[in-house]
Structures are given as C-alpha cells and as structure tokens.
Amino acid sequence: MSEQTTQVFDPFQAAFEADEQRKKEAENAKNNSGNYADYEEVKWLSLDLNSWIAFRPLGVPWDFRTESWHPKMILQSKIVKDDKSNFSKINWPYVLKGGKYVADPDWILSKLYNKVMEASWVKYSEADIDPKNKIGRNQEGKIVNAKGYDSYRVDKYSTTQIYQLINFNKKSTQDKSMNAFKPSFKVVMNIISRMDDWCKVNKHTMLLSTKVGYQEIVDKVTGNKTTINFPQTGISKSMYDEFIHYTQRSNNRWDVDFAIHRYQDSQDMYKNDYTDAKLRDRNDASIRDLMTDVPLTTEELGYEKYDIDKITQITSYQKLLNHHKGLFKLFDMEFNQSLTEELIHLADEEKRKYEEDHKNDKKESVIVDKTISSEIPKVEERSRGSEISKGSSPEESLKSIYPFWDKISKEDKDDILSYFDKIENVEVIWKPNTALIPCDECKTILPKSVMHCPKCDKDYN
Fold first, then answer.
1. What is the rounded distance in angstroms from the CA atom of residue 364 to the CA atom of residue 34?
2. Contacts from 246-251 at CB under 8 Å and sequence distance 24+?
3. Could you give the maximum distance between any two Cα atoms of the chain, in Å?
4. Which of 292, 293, 335 lies closest to 112, judged by CA?
5. Cα separation of 162 and 327, whole Å?
6. Per-residue pLDDT tens digits of the chain, which is 461 residues long
7. What are phi and psi of 178, to 5 degrees?
8. CA distance 339 to 346
9. Helix, strand or coil, per DSSP, at residue 370
C-alpha cells in the first residue's frame, strides 16, 4: 500500500491500493472454482429503532462504484410463495429509462406484473367533489385531490384472481403484515461497525441493514439450539439519499464515522436523524465516544469486504419456477398467455449454461469455503440406527432429520431424494459429485438446486 500522503490523506484511494491485491486473488479464486466455493455468512449491522447506530462507510457512492464491494443499489421485493408457506426475496433487474431507474420491462416477472397492474387515469368530474375526501376545486378552477392531482388511477384487471394475489401478497387472510409485491430500491453497503468489536476481531466488514430480526430454533434430533437472523436487505434508497445529502452538507465526504437514528414520529412515520464524528459536542452521549474522525488505520483498510455483487444476484429463473410457477400458470390462464412455458425454457437454458460453465470442475462433492467449514454445525454422533429405523424408506428417514420436510415443495423433495445416498450417525450422506451448498441460516448442507431449507424452514438459494 502506498503511504506517501504527506498533506492530504485520501481514505478512498488508500483503501483501493490496500485492497487491490486481495481483489485480484479473490477474482482468480472465483474464476477457478465452483460457483459456491467462496460462500460466507453475512454479518449485518441493524439500525435499531430509537437508538443511535455508529459506523464508518466504505467505498464510494453507488452510482460511481467500480468494485464489487462498493455500495450497490438493488431492486427487491418479497413475494408470497405458491404454497403460502413463506416469502421469497426476489431481486429484479432494472434499467435507466427517461432519466429514472425502473424494473427491466423485458424480464419475465416484469412482463407479468406490468400486464396485471395496467391502469388508466380518469379525470375528476363534478360528481367526484367531496370535501370529506379533500376533493374540490383549486385556485385555477380544476378539480383536484389533496395532493393536487386532477385525475385518479383505475386498475384495468382488478377483478382477476392474479390481481388479488399480487395486490394483497399475503400468506393468509390472517396475515397482517405489509408485503408489497412491487419491488423497491435498496442500497447495500460495506461498513465498519463502531457498536462493538466484531469487525476488529474478525478483520471483516459488516453490511448495513434497516432491521435484523432473530429467532431461536431447536433441532428436534439433537436438541441443539441455533439462532438465525432475518435481515432486511440493506437500507432504503430514500434513507441512503438522505445520508448522502447529509454528507454533502457537512462537507465530510466519507472519511469520518457517521451515525443514524431511526424513530417513529407522532403519525407513526419512520424518520431518520444523522450526525458525524466532527460534531462531537452535539452528538448523542450514547455514541459520542464510539465515533472517530481520524483516517482508517492500515489494519482497517485491510479488512475483508463482502462481495456485494455475489450476494445480490438477479433471482434465477429456477427459483421463480420452483416457488412461483403457480403465479405464472394463473396469469397464463386468465390472460391467455404462455409465460409459464417461457419460464420453463429460460430455467432449462440457465441450467444448461451453468452445467456447461462448470463441466470441467473437479471439486469435491461438498463445495464449501474453508473459511466457514468449521462453522457448519456438526450433527451429534450417535450409533447408526439409534434414531432411524433400518426399515425406513429414504423419505421417512429424511423426514426424521428435517423438521420442516413437509413444508418444502415437491420439487425440493424430489431433488433431495435424487441426490440422497444414505444416513450415517444421523447425518445425511449425499451421492458422489453432488454439488452442495450450506443453508444461509442454519448451515445445513443440501444440494444447490434446493430452494427451501427443510431444517430451518428458510429460503437460501
């Protein structure tokens, strides 16, 4: 790393120089390995409500990013699965159109969504004037609503079944959560947390999240407890924009620590306050001594960073087919289209390309990065057959090990059974040369084609 910075220390340039060799080595490793060889668990820093959370941002603003670890804007939604068991996180491709970023209209899910949600705009008339609903004439004599609009939206296909599925996007009528099918823009960014010493101990960055939920699960076979987390991906683009505007006003760039305080106002609207280390006399006492405005140390500049491109890839056609085929079939039935057939073709092409790209791989059957292999929970060794009857069918045996076996899709069950070899010491042994990947949450090793974990009941692919 170059340290010839006698007058002005530029942490951006220093970080680039310190990280250059690491990125080259990481890229070489990725190009010469299986698709999941460099898997790692993601550590998120949560912006808890009513608390100041301090951190040092890394990289450059997302619209100037040049490296895979720089902040990145993604377009994401949570869509209820066909079996209503849970939601899938879907990453949509987007394009710049008319000076605005929008979902790529040529992507297959965009085609479905845009058609179902087609609408027309109807001008307000005399009959619509209603003081109670704040519809009346403005100073120019036009009939407008409270926001000043002179027309209102009318959805063309609101009576269709698929419109109802998309509009409500819920697991059941009892589901009270808000789950917008329409994707929203988020920003994912590497940061160094100042709330604890995790980054220092692990020599690794974290990713910033609006909120991280936690749940403890108990393995029914071993009795072992595992805590899994449910992070919201990144922060909203609106929050990120506010943060960027604050840095511009404070003239601090990103070379000092910052803090964000989330809270709800009297109308239950989420709001954010911002501060930085240079305003030490005005900072909240809870974070004042945690923040610093000194340049990043050589050690901090060398922290391992998350490859954001890798963990925010556009959702695969196979995942759409596995969990949302019913949505496409309903669309085809109600709109006399053939998107399901197109999706199947795209998934087949995706699989063919993947196999072509990896046909020469000589990896061992368990494709797991050595940096996390020691973290994968070990199943407690027991005498073979102590928990599983020797006469059990493969499915019965797997069901005794996986507590959520009945909740996964038929496609996932078929894949697991096709790659299943045997069970030894209450542990699944897979057929040779099976490409495997650990679950994001509980680290259970499963075939890479499986989309929902039967051990912890979470999507992970």
1. 10
2. 246/274, 246/276, 247/276, 250/276, 250/278, 250/279
3. 84
4. 335
5. 7
6. 444 444 444 555 555 554 554 444 444 433 333 333 334 478 999 999 999 999 999 999 998 999 999 999 999 999 999 988 888 999 999 999 988 999 999 999 999 999 999 999 999 998 988 988 899 999 888 999 988 899 998 999 999 999 999 999 988 877 777 788 999 999 999 999 999 999 999 999 999 999 988 777 777 777 787 777 788 999 999 999 999 999 988 887 888 999 999 999 888 889 999 999 988 777 888 999 999 999 999 999 999 999 999 999 999 999 999 999 999 999 999 999 999 999 999 999 999 998 888 776 544 444 443 333 333 333 333 333 334 445 578 888 888 888 888 888 877 888 888 888 888 767 888 887 777 777 777 778 888 778 888 888 877 65
7. -100, 115
8. 10
9. helix
Element (H, E) at 95: strand 94-97
Which tokens go with 45? Answer: 């820093």
In this structure, are strands 44-46 and 206-209 parallel, antiparallel, or unpaired? Answer: parallel
Task: Kindly report the pTM of this predicted structure.
Answer: 0.70
Q: How far is CA 42 from the centre of its chain?
A: 11
**Token code pair at residue 413:** 């069950």
State how far the Cα of 145 lies from the Cα of 135, in Å rounded to an integer: 4
| Core vs surface per residue 259-278: b (16+ CB within 10 A) or e | bbbbeeeeeeeeebebbbbe
Tell me the C-alpha distance between 25 and 31, whole Å.
10
Tokens (6 digits) for 62:
């997302």
Tokens of 375: 């973290």
Nearest to 210 by CA among 45, 56, 74: 45
Write phi, then psi, for 428 (nearest 5 degrees).
-75, 130
- Local structure of residue 358 (DSSP, 8 states): T
* DSSP code of residue 268: S
Short-list 390, 402, 398, CA closest to 417: 398
Residues 6 or more apart whose Cβ sits within 8 Å of residue 25: none
Q: Are 90 and 109 in contact (CB under 8 A)?
A: yes
**Cα(69)–Cα(66) distance, integer angstroms:** 9
Q: Are 82 and 325 in contact (CB under 8 A)?
A: yes
Helices within 369-425 (DSSP H only)? 370-373, 394-401, 410-419
Distance of CA 216 to the CA centre of its chain: 20
Taking the C-alpha atoms of residue 125 and residue 47, their distance in angstroms, rounded to an integer, is 46
Between the two ends of the chain, the Cα-to-Cα distance in Å is 37
